[in-house]
Amino acid sequence: MSTIAxxxxxxxxxxxxxxxxxxxxxxxxxxxxxxxxxxxxAGDMEGYTCSYGLITDENNERVDDVVLxxxxxxxxxxxxxxxxxxxxxxxxxxxxxxxxxxNSGAVPAQAGEFTKRAFLNGxxxxxxxxxVMDIISSGGEAQLRYANALKNGSIFKRISKIKSSLVEILxxxxxxxxxxxxxxxxxxxxxLICQLSTVLNELIKISDSYDEGRIIxxxxxxxxxxxxxxxxxxxxxxxxxxxxxIVTDIAGTTRDVIEESVRLGDLTLRLSDTAGIRDTNDxxxxxxxxxxxxxxxxxxxxxxxxxxxxxxxxxEHDLINKLKGKKCIAILNKIDGDLNINKxxxxxxxxxxxxxxxxxxxxxxxxxxxxxxxFLDHISDADEGIIANERQRxxxxxxxxxxxxxxxxxxxxxxxxxxxxxxDSALSHLMELTGERVSDTVIDDVFSRFCVGK
Length: 454
Ligand code: GDP
Hints:
By secondary structure, this protein is α/β, with parallel strands linked by helices.
């Protein structure tokens, strides 16, 4: 195994930078360019200790005074010998020290290679390794909480429990098939179906947690829609806190989709203000209206805006019908003006109706509160563990399909061999999720998303 090195801190000027070295020769590499003031070599240092000293170049010229920290295998991030040089945080100095380290026998680390080594050395499961990147890219408290729970093995433990149940079922099937003459208890179809249904339900719950994770990570994909001139852009500006959408009283001003992110405590709203939904002869605006309907179909949340000073027209009745069954909040805007709308229609068509005056910032906090309740109340406890990415989700879905197949085989036959084959495949999917049985291509793909130095 080679000894790798990379700058572990961002490529920017800062107080300090850290150069991380990992591998069998980590300490001898350091000893070629680092001299401790107490004359101790890196090779002599105990794990978890630091030395203050000098980095010198090929001509023995002083480059920087640094702190060297030593971690001895297997008690390190990668499970190998690791040395970290904390130097002054200038770009030039950091890169010069990295070059000296590389000239002393280390090779440049690839993206995510430190974490990949941690995974290959059994320090982390694949889901825990993936959480490292989630922790780094956390944009808020909730995201960090879920990433930390993943890093602590929440989903790994949840999947491991399911794997144990499957292994138990598979071993009873094997014992029954292979040693019929022994005193092995008979495997009953109904008992198996019952056990597999429990496993299936838990897997479906885990698979559904993907959407919660996506909402925490990426935000709530929110569309603001409604007829032209009802106040969509004004509402968007209220929520984002500044004038992002062009507000005029000429119908059709917002021709395309304008996007903006708003933080609501633990949640992020990813807002799209769409072109007003109405018949239009304007080709460009017409395209905007098509996009509006596409967005509505993909959205996690739809804020549908109505003007309380005018009656609902046919287009709006159509829109109300189109939105049936979707997660919607009806916004009754312009309540500062004369009421002409039939409020009852809205209250009977939507689960949530908020009366606002976007122009005067009235009712906006109430709207934010409803959004928070609508989403936060449905998000599971971080410690339960949720799946964090498409790779993990497709592994869980693979296992779900296999177990559904096993149940349907058992419901119409007693072909236990066929059941064993599909349950084996379900187990493989779960082991791919945790990284216990995974191809090099998948591993390379996971770690290629990491940054260099992590
Ligand atoms: P959009 O076409 O749906 O995006 O509508 P705009 O946000 O551009 O607003 C259309 C017009 O309605 C503008 O003249 C706004 O100033 C006005 N407007 C928006 N919200 C309110 C409100 O709460 N009260 C009143 N009186 N006028 C509003």
